[in-house]
Amino acid sequence: MARKVIFLDRDGTINEEVRYLHRSEELRIIPGVPEALRRLRELGFLLVLVTNQAGIARGYYAEADCERLNAYLNETLRREGAGLDRVYYCPHHPEKGIGVYRRDCDCRKPKPGMLRRAAEELQLGRFENIPAGETVDRAHSYMLGDKRIDTIAGHNFGIQGILLGSGYGRTERELAAPGDYDAYFESMGEAVGWIEKRERDGS
Ligand SMILES: [Mg+2]
Description:
Radius of gyration: 16 Å
Low-confidence stretches: none
Distance between the termini: 21 Å
CATH topology: Rossmann fold
Strand content: 15-25%
Helix content: 25-40%
Number of helices: 7
Bound molecules: magnesium ion
Number of strands: 8
Largest sheet: 6 strands, parallel
CATH class: Alpha Beta
CATH superfamily: HAD superfamily/HAD-like
């Protein structure tokens, strides 16, 4: 079966932008986001987080810190019925990375490596409570984020890229070239309303 998936950026999209966020005390979920994610789940979307974490590459915090924060974020969302199905992060940076983290990887957005890996792992049955053999329904999947690297990563994976006005979104919108994103909304709630209508109308 083909599954509809919402790929989500983390910082500036789900939680307030904090430079090199890695402490759970500093995590602030953007108002309205849990409700929007819950609605997406009700509509049958899988939720997959894909986040660039160059702070790991730069040595500002460890992978364990990132994983702890991601787990805390997901527990918080789950309590609101808005849990994520899967979480991926890219710990690399092509120039600023230290040691093994200095890599021209294929996962750092705008490259689509994390989205591809999610599709592979979905097919292999590595998603909780989902049998093996499922695929991503690209015509009905979306990437949501506050930067052009997010929407372009979506395009590079063959899905719609929606830019949000949270985080760096307003500035990113001003800097964007035609075609960098498919739609812009001030909030995730508005984006979800648009997705719901688009899916219903079959456009
Ligand atoms: Mg972001």
